[in-house]
């Protein structure tokens, strides 16, 4: 069966031309045929099929009735392990669903399983995990992107929809590298409890799917809203194309795809405005890392105390499987770590620095009267699996892998902006790359409406 979009599948289900059992069985069968991709950590075959049969036996009762959904393994699902990809949590089974899962179930969705991820969400590749690497859906010799790599790969391989979490790009990066769509909502738009945390300031749950229309439906369910995205004629769209940091030093395939995408949008009647955005080179170093590392220590300690009191932060760190994640913990997070972020530096970053960054974005949106900023989601396509701390080539320049792949998605996440990625048509062949749209704070529904138009124009 060719994978339909989520919205198409729902129409077929309501018309009786497709069953939840068929959709769920196809997803599970595909996952079992491709175990080498590392897509799932837990697959609930029996429970999902029972739920699918139950959905088929009653009339539609919600906007996601009978739809199988996959979930990143740091979001609590009652009765399923919540490992966060790390050994110390391998036996932790939450007794209740996270609120975002409750909303999916109330809408009629079926949770099929928990997907692979970069250990404790501390990486951009999903190659470091106690359960093995997650491999790219289009080339298993390459990484999936992270940290929500398993969800992106599951969707690229046939799942209709899924959830990840995004701190500095963890939904958008793997979505882009596997050729699917992903949304980072404005922080606070969805409930955030019942999730293995990293940074309270930056963490959000984000949906992934095949189309932006699918994301709009998932967003309405997760946000507890019923409104449709506003109708935005394509000729009314006005996007800013930033210079320097976001659009220079691109891989050859990304640069070609980005220019082609801009030309397609121009021909469709979209207004594109060049926007100067200097001074972003140190944003992640000066703001993102201090905020994330300081909060990771605080949030993980509180999370363990609440949900897994038998495990301390020291126990968690001692059992970490991935060398890159282990190094971050022992360099900057555990007691006595030599690079632990001082409270004063954290407060400067989260109060003064973040406030200044948000003001920069507000000036850009207001001055240029733009709906969103438009740029490549990642500077290049996925690289080969290997040492996640090794440098990668980006446009002839060798850059640290983690910094390279969150370069474009990080600043908006620090500022609390909603961000979207849609696949760009490849003009030189090769692996998928994505087009990012960052919108003003709380513009999520308009951003999705704009994204629907963008995806349509990129596909024609």
Let me know the CATH homologous superfamily of the largest domain. Amidase signature (AS) domain
Overall strand count: 13
Report the CATH C-level class of the largest domain. Answer: Alpha Beta
Structural class: alpha/beta
CATH 2nd-level architecture of the largest domain: Alpha-Beta Complex
Q: Which percent band covers the strand fraction?
A: 5-15%
Biggest sheet, in brief? 11 strands, mixed
Report on the architecture of this protein:
By secondary structure, the protein is of the alpha/beta class. It is 39% helix and 14% strand. The chain contains 15 helices and 13 strands. The strands form 2 sheets. An 11-stranded mixed sheet has the order 1-3-2-4-6-5-12-13-9-7-8, with helices on both faces. A two-stranded antiparallel sheet has the order 10-11. A hairpin with a 2-residue loop joins strand 10 and strand 11.
Attribute tags:
39% helix; single chain; 460 residues; Amidase signature (AS) enzymes; alpha/beta
Summarize the structure.
It contains 15 helices and 13 strands. With 460 residues, the chain is an alpha/beta fold. Strand 7, helix 8 (252-268) and strand 8 (271-275) form a beta-alpha-beta unit.
List the helices and strands and how they pair.
Layout: H1 6-15, H2 20-33, E1 40-43, H3 45-56, E2 68-72, H4 99-106, E3 110-115, H5 149-156, E4 161-166, H6 172-178, E5 181-184, E6 204-209, H7 212-223, E7 238-242, H8 252-268, E8 271-275, H9 283-307, H10 313-318, H11 323-332, H12 343-368, E9 372-376, E10 391-394, E11 397-400, H13 401-405, H14 410-415, E12 419-423, E13 434-438, H15 444-458
Parallel strand pairs: 2-3, 2-4, 7-8, 7-9
Antiparallel strand pairs: 1-3, 4-6, 5-6, 5-12, 9-13, 10-11, 12-13
């Amino acid at each position: 069966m060719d994978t339909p979009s989520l919205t198409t599948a729902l129409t077929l289900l309501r018309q009786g031309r497709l069953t939840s059992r068929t959709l769920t069985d196809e997803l599970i069968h595909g996952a079992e045929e491709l175990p080498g991709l590392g897509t799932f950590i837990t697959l609930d075959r029996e429970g999902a099929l029972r739920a699918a049969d139950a959905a088929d036996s009653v009339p539609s009762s919600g906007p996601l009735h009978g739809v199988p959904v996959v979930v990143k393994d740091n979001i609590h699902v009652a009765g399923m392990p919540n490992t966060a990809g790390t050994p110390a949590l391998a036996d932790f089974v939450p007794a209740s669903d996270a609120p975002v899962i409750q909303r999916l179930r109330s809408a009629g969705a079926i949770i099929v399983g928990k997907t692979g991820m970069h250990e404790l969400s501390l990486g951009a590749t999903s190659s470091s995990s106690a359960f093995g690497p997650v491999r790219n859906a289009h080339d298993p010799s390459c990484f999936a992107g992270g940290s929500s790599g398993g969800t992106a790969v599951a969707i690229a391989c046939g799942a209709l929809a899924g959830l990840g979490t995004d701190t500095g790009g963890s939904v958008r990066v793997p979505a882009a590298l596997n050729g699917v769509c992903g949304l980072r909502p404005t922080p606070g738009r969805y409930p955030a409890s019942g999730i293995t945390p990293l940074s309270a300031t930056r963490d959000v749950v984000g949906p992934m799917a095949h189309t932006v229309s699918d994301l709009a439906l998932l967003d309405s369910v997760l946000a507890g809203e019923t409104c449709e995205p506003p109708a935005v004629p394509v000729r009314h769209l006005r996007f800013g194309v930033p210079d320097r940091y976001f659009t220079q030093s691109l891989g050859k395939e990304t640069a070609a795809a980005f220019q082609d995408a801009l030309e397609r949008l121009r021909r469709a009647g979209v207004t594109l405005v060049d926007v100067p955005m200097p001074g972003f080179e140190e944003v992640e170093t000066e703001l993102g890392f201090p905020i994330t590392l300081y909060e990771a220590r605080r949030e993980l300690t509180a999370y363990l105390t609440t949900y897994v009191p038998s495990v301390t932060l020291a126990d968690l760190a001692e059992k970490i499987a991935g060398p890159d994640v282990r190094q971050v913990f022992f360099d900057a997070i555990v007691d006595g770590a030599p690079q632990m972020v001082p409270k004063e530096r954290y407060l400067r970053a989260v109060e003064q620095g973040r406030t200044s960054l948000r003001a920069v974005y507000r000036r850009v949106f207001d001055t240029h009267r733009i709906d969103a900023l438009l740029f490549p989601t990642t500077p290049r396509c996925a690289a080969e699996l290997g040492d996640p701390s090794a440098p990668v080539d980006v446009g002839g320049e060798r850059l640290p892998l983690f910094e390279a792949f969150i370069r474009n998605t990080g600043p908006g996440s620090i500022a609390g902006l909603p961000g979207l990625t849609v696949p760009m048509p490849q003009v030189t062949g090769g692996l998928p790359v994505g087009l990012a749209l960052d919108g003003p704070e709380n513009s999520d529904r308009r951003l999705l409406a704009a994204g629907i138009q963008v995806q349509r124009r990129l596909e024609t």
